């Protein structure tokens, strides 16, 4: 990593290409699940959903390349992959379905939040003091908890399905979940890291044998399409929606900080404030790109960090190949449309595992980096998670509030986040020990290989690797 040159003559191009495909496969399930959830929730047609998935994959590639290549202004120049942020799922659905807002307010809020991250990237060293591990761990736990009901609804057949809860849907959904569990039990290395994607493929094949797969989205999709900005709607700017997405973006940046620090340790680089600021700016640009092209906000994908640890390949060229592949796939709607072959029950079974991993990553932060022997910390977690889950479970709780305030108060993630921030300030203040997300030498954050796998090697190795967090 001493040279700025990405593609170096130390490995056969075919091997670099195959390693790039591995990175695409490791993040692909998360990249297609988010647009499918949001698109279906806000009433998109199959044609619109195909475009959304395609532009999302393309934007993932562009966002990844911005971080990998980088320059003096933006890009951290680490082998990091970016994908659509799971943190944004519930807020985007709420904004999209809110009276007087809709899809245009979603993209206005995404653009504004990206601009906020870009402009204030140099100040995040101070702002992140508001998001110590007790806050980020609580927030990620809330995100996982609030997404699980969406997974279970899909497992039953999806909202409004005539056969909701039918035996075939239940069998498919739990069959996929059990398959993923068993695959994680018997497999290691790369197979385990893509177990959710394999579960989706196997589940869809089983559903096709049962006659529950509709192939029309693929047959109707074209082989190529042009990418246009503001394809679905020109942005409108609503202050409540903007504040919501800014908070989501800040949480994403805090988590990205942990990813950057871990990757820096793996590749043997000291990551300082200037490098972090360039990484934040690239993430801000990626979020703005998502708003302009009507896709999603983007953040680092930690399961790809696990793949870097597992494969022992820590150069940027393989991730650059992954980014280029994602861009190319984004221009081919027929490939993107294959995601729509997945029946809701199959998707729901995989989502239980995927969103459960989001939940477990939050629990892990709280367990590894927060002093749980202190009553104050337990009380902060109790109130913030309780508030987040409670608001999500009783959506009409704030029906009497003005609409501009309800968009904030009705969102369990936002309510829980504000509770965690305010209670942490009340009980812990801004003490230095709580200022940053701590990453210790023996903290195997992403379920990857042991520390020896971070040492220099260009050959893949089959060490154990967790499925990884999609947060």
From TrEMBL:
<feature type="transmembrane region" description="Helical">
    <location>
        <begin position="318"/>
        <end position="339"/>
    </location>
</feature>
<keyword id="KW-1133">Transmembrane helix</keyword>
<dbReference type="InterPro" id="IPR017588">
    <property type="entry name" value="UacT-like"/>
</dbReference>
<feature type="transmembrane region" description="Helical">
    <location>
        <begin position="101"/>
        <end position="123"/>
    </location>
</feature>
<comment type="similarity">
    <text>Belongs to the nucleobase:cation symporter-2 (NCS2) (TC 2.A.40) family.</text>
</comment>
<feature type="transmembrane region" description="Helical">
    <location>
        <begin position="345"/>
        <end position="366"/>
    </location>
</feature>
<feature type="transmembrane region" description="Helical">
    <location>
        <begin position="76"/>
        <end position="95"/>
    </location>
</feature>
<feature type="transmembrane region" description="Helical">
    <location>
        <begin position="21"/>
        <end position="43"/>
    </location>
</feature>
<feature type="transmembrane region" description="Helical">
    <location>
        <begin position="407"/>
        <end position="427"/>
    </location>
</feature>
<feature type="transmembrane region" description="Helical">
    <location>
        <begin position="130"/>
        <end position="152"/>
    </location>
</feature>
<protein>
    <submittedName>
        <fullName>Purine permease</fullName>
    </submittedName>
</protein>
<keyword id="KW-0812">Transmembrane</keyword>
<dbReference type="Pfam" id="PF00860">
    <property type="entry name" value="Xan_ur_permease"/>
</dbReference>
<keyword id="KW-1003">Cell membrane</keyword>
<feature type="transmembrane region" description="Helical">
    <location>
        <begin position="239"/>
        <end position="264"/>
    </location>
</feature>
<keyword id="KW-0813">Transport</keyword>
<feature type="region of interest" description="Disordered">
    <location>
        <begin position="447"/>
        <end position="471"/>
    </location>
</feature>
<feature type="transmembrane region" description="Helical">
    <location>
        <begin position="49"/>
        <end position="69"/>
    </location>
</feature>
<feature type="transmembrane region" description="Helical">
    <location>
        <begin position="190"/>
        <end position="210"/>
    </location>
</feature>
<feature type="transmembrane region" description="Helical">
    <location>
        <begin position="164"/>
        <end position="183"/>
    </location>
</feature>
<feature type="transmembrane region" description="Helical">
    <location>
        <begin position="378"/>
        <end position="401"/>
    </location>
</feature>
<dbReference type="InterPro" id="IPR006042">
    <property type="entry name" value="Xan_ur_permease"/>
</dbReference>
<dbReference type="InterPro" id="IPR006043">
    <property type="entry name" value="NCS2"/>
</dbReference>
<keyword id="KW-0472">Membrane</keyword>
């Amino acid at each position: 990593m001493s040279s700025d040159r990405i593609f170096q003559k130390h490995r056969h191009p075919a091997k670099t290409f195959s390693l790039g495909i591995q990175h695409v496969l490791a993040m692909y399930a998360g990249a297609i699940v988010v647009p499918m959830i949001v698109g279906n929730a806000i009433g998109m047609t199959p044609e619109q959903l195909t475009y959304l998935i395609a532009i999302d994959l393309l934007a993932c590639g562009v966002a990844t390349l911005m971080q990998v290549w980088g320059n003096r202004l933006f890009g951290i120049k680490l082998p990091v992959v970016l994908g659509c942020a799971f943190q944004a799922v519930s807020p985007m659905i709420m904004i999209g379905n809110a009276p007087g807002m809709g899809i245009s307010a979603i993209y206005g809020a995404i653009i504004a939040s990206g601009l906020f991250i870009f402009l204030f990237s140099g100040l995040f060293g101070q702002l992140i003091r508001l998001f110590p591990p007790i806050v980020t761990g609580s927030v990620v736990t809330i995100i996982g908890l609030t997404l699980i009901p969406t997974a279970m609804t899909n497992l039953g057949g999806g909202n409004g399905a005539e056969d909701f809860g039918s035996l075939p849907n239940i069998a498919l959904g739990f069959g996929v979940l059990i398959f993923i569990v068993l695959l994680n039990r018997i497999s290691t290395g790369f197979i385990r890291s893509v177990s959710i994607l394999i579960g989706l493929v196997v589940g869809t094949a089983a559903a096709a044998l049962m006659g529950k797969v509709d192939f029309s989205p693929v047959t109707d999709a074209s082989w190529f399409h042009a990418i246009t900005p503001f394809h679905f709607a020109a942005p409108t700017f609503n202050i409540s929606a903007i504040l919501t997405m800014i908070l989501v973006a800040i949480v994403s940046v805090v988590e990205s900080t942990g990813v950057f620090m871990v990757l820096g340790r793996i590749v043997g680089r000291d990551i300082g404030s200037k490098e972090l600021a360039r990484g934040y700016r690239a993430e801000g640009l990626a979020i703005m790109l998502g708003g302009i092209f009507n896709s999603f906000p983007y953040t680092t994908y930690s399961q790809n960090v696990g793949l870097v640890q597992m494969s022992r390949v820590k150069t940027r060229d393989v991730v650059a190949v992954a980014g280029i592949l994602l861009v190319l796939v984004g221009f081919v709607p027929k490939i993107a449309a294959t995601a729509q072959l997945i029946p809701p029950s199959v998707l729901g079974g995989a989502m239980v595992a995927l969103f459960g991993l989001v939940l477990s990553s939050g629990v892990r932060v709280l367990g590894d980096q927060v002093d749980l022997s202190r009553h104050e910390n337990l009380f902060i977690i109790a109130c913030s998670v309780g508030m987040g889950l409670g608001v999500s479970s009783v959506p009409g709780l704030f029906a009497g509030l003005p609409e501009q305030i309800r968009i904030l108060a009705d969102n369990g993630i936002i309510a829980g986040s504000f509770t965690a921030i305010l209670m942490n300030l009340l009980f812990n203040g801004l003490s230095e020990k709580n200022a940053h997300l701590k990453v210790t030498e023996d903290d195997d954050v992403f379920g990857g290989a042991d520390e020896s796998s971070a040492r220099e090697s260009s050959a893949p190795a089959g060490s154990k690797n967790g499925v990884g967090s999609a947060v």
